[in-house]
Amino acid sequence: xxxxxxxxxxxxxxxxxxxxxxxxxxxxxxxxxxxxxxxxxxxxxxxxxxxxxxxxxxxxxxxxxxxxxxxxxxxxxxxxxxxxxxxxxxxxxxxxxxxxxxxxxxxxxxxxxxxxxxxxxxxxxxxxxxxxxxxxxxxxxxxxxxxxxxxxxxxxxxxxxxxxxxxxxxxxxxxxxxxxxxxxxxxxxxxxxxxxxxxxxxxxxxxxxxxxxxxxxxxxxxxxxxxxxxxxxxxxxxxxxxxxxxxxxxxxxxxxxxxxxxxxxxxxxxxxxxxxxxxxxxxxxxxxxxxxxxxxxxxxxxxxxxxxxxxxxxxxxxxxxxxxxxxxxxxxxxxxxxxxxxxxxxxxxxxxxxxxx
Length: 357
What we know:
Rossmann fold; Dna Ligase, domain 1; five-stranded antiparallel β-sheet; four-stranded antiparallel β-sheet; 19 strands
């Protein structure tokens, strides 16, 4: 099977790419920055370095929030014919904190009280009502960037001056004291593949590894794992990171990351997360391909009024390639033999049969 990893070429992406090569017959790393989408009356055309992107059995596409529209376009073009762990709308939901929180709320995922505001005046009203400290967040941003901590109304008000210049909605979120720690869970399918507790460095409120935070392994209870998996499902992602706070009310989700770094959690947990991702991609791609074959064969049976599993008689003229007999395509579809598969061939004059051993 053929697979492609579309990414920005980060260290984590390279780790995943190398792991995928252990499972797939062919794997290509594709630089997202060299891709283009052509939209026309005949549909979407995806170009890579100016040429049409070839067909793959599976595509794992991920990248910065800045490329969310491009990622959504690419995955939309291939979603029906290629296995992809991230649905097209994942990039819209997962790369925008406003939409992420709305998706979490809609799916009843526990999270801190969060206000979405679009103007200084609206923000002032909220800031006059909330308890301090509070967190202010920009809609986009990763690695803890765009997250501000305000200890008082005065501090929050001064931050509004900078935020207002962007003319974009932003978040005001309840601050929950966790002594500068949070939990990062890597969700792969219906399981949490790895999890670590991140602890912020002295004087820093953000626990992100990229902000200097330190990670240590942690075993999550069943309830927290379920919340992480459900949060990933809420944004349509089979592979992502979910960040969680441990509160007196229980675990609460604060963010989702569609393109998480793997070095920190791999070092902290000693779990080969890249390999787990690669193996999952292979298994899901295989399921997708086999399901496609079954669907195609079922449609063929229906079109020909053939009952699946029943022996059929086909009348056809023999087709030779050099000195070899080439069977009709319909025989391949009905028997479901794969290339390279071992079979028992019985032959005598005027008769030949093929069977699985």
